[in-house]
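Q: Given only this backbone (371 positions), what sequence would you predict?
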């Protein structure tokens, strides 16, 4: 009887938990609090935090044969990030970008954060491939961060990179507004933009096809991301496959979010996560995201000058890839200056351009390293 009780006791987590595991469990609980109580991107943060909780209570769940190991293999094969892009395309209206093609410039400007972080990461001791994988966090695009890390063979860094990218996506409403206010005047924040023109159905259908041809011809390695993004949008705009559009943007999207979120969280075991490298990745990710936001706003100020005050610089901050959260933040900060100001649809143009821009930035890195 004593031996039986001893065996049962040693099967509990109490005998295997390290101080690091306890710390990571505490972090998981904080993230759950932010997701449930503060509602910071709960669709992403809740499964990530729960995966973090599970792997630190029972590490074998992430070993070969464990449930979350097989979820993670779908990340490693870049299947889940590509399917996320399919859902984003099916959900997103590209009309504001088509109506105002200058938005592409704002989305491109926001990628400054990615490339500045690349050089900074190399100065901090990362090799070139590691620096590229870390710097893409500046685009605030979790799926692209996972995709690039795996393509560049940075499996060991995937957990910190993905958690940092998704955390900054969820913290967009906290991180961006102070930067936006610091770089703009009240007069600039009050600028009202002209209503966007109507975009025809023909334009909406042709746009994803043309973008796919151009981008995938120049950077074929982006085909899984750009191709799925544009396919999802073509489902939406064609009007002939409503069932596919609804599946991609609802049922399939939510299934993929569950698998992706829990598997990303499960990469954060104490042994893999509690390292000085992780702290550097988190710091670099924040710097990259802040630089990207600042670059978008500053380029928006330049466009404001060149157009005689027709463009509100706040929409430049939406050039990062956090769709549609970044666009909503542009609207919120603009409305604080003038409650009658409506910037949401104008900000969606740079926001969509940022999604494309971050995927292109990832493609550039893959081309540089011959992937």
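A: Predicted residues:
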């Amino acid at each position: 009887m004593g031996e039986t009780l001893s065996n049962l006791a040693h099967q509990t987590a109490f005998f295997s938990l390290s101080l690091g595991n306890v710390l990571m469990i505490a972090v998981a609980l904080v993230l759950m609090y932010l997701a449930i109580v503060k509602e910071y991107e709960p669709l992403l943060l809740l499964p990530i935090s729960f995966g973090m909780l599970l792997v630190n209570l029972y590490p074998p769940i992430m070993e070969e044969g464990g449930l979350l190991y097989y979820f993670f293999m779908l990340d490693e094969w870049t299947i889940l990030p590509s399917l996320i892009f399919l859902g984003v395309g099916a959900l997103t209206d590209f009309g504001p970008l088509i109506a105002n093609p200058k938005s592409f410039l704002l989305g491109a400007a926001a990628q400054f954060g990615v490339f500045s972080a690349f050089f900074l990461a190399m100065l901090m001791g990362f090799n070139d491939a590691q620096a590229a994988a870390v710097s893409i966090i500046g685009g605030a695009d979790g799926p692209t961060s996972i995709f690039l890390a795996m393509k560049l063979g940075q499996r060991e860094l995937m957990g910190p990179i993905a958690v940092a990218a998704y955390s900054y996506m969820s913290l967009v409403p906290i991180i961006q507004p102070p930067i936006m206010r610091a770089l703009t005047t009240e007069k600039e924040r009050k600028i009202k933009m002209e209503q966007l023109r109507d975009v025809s159905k023909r334009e909406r259908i042709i746009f994803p096809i043309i973008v796919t041809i151009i981008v995938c011809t120049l950077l074929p390695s982006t085909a899984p991301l750009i191709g799925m993004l544009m396919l999802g949008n073509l489902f939406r705009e064609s009007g002939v496959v409503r069932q596919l559009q609804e599946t991609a943007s609802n049922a399939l999207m939510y299934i993929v979010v569950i698998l992706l979120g829990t598997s990303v969280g499960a990469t954060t075991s104490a042994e893999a996560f509690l390292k000085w490298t992780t702290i550097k990745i988190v710091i670099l990710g924040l710097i990259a995201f802040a630089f990207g936001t600042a670059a978008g706003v500053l380029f928006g100020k330049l466009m404001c000058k060149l157009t005689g005050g027709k463009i509100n610089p706040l929409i430049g901050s939406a050039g990062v890839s956090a769709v549609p959260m970044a666009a909503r933040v542009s609207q919120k900060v603009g409305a604080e200056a003038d409650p009658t100001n409506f910037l949401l649809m104008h900000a969606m143009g740079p926001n969509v351009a940022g999604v494309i821009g971050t995927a292109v930035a990832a493609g550039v890195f893959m081309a540089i390293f011959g992937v």
